[in-house]
Amino acid sequence: MKPILFAPILAMSLALVPAAALAQDNHAGHGDHAAHAEAQVSAEETMLRTTIAAMQAGTPNYDDMVTELADAVRAGEASITPMIQGFGAVQTLEHQGEVQGAQHYRATFDNAVTDWFIALGDDGKIAGLVFRPAG
């Protein structure tokens, strides 16, 4: 696998939304916390797969992102899109756990292995998104 050049790829940053806000979730109405957590991870994995595919196609879906994140992605699109396209096809996407309210995934592509962190807001939009070389 080719090494990933670590450029300013963190234009999409969890720093856009305070970690405490990302971690907030009203568990009062959940009878089964494990089932709720699994459903949330599934929603975030689905959104991450969709987002990676859209970015590789050169058509990020800004409607799936909060305004601040969409603006950051637009600003960095010229460098981010070719980088993600260069990763090649997604081979695997493995959930690694939760970090400061965001779900951590290890993505293995044809040409790269990366770590992704994604957090959804209460409205289901991506509130935080970061990727970096795995490790």
UniProtKB/TrEMBL annotation:
Keywords of the record, alphabetical order, are: Signal
User: Taxonomically, which superkingdom?
Assistant: Bacteria
What span is annotated as the signal peptide, if there is one?
1-23
Question: What protein name does the entry list?
Answer: Uncharacterized protein
Which lineage is the organism of this entry classified under, starting from the top rank?
Answer: Bacteria, Pseudomonadati, Pseudomonadota, Alphaproteobacteria, Caulobacterales
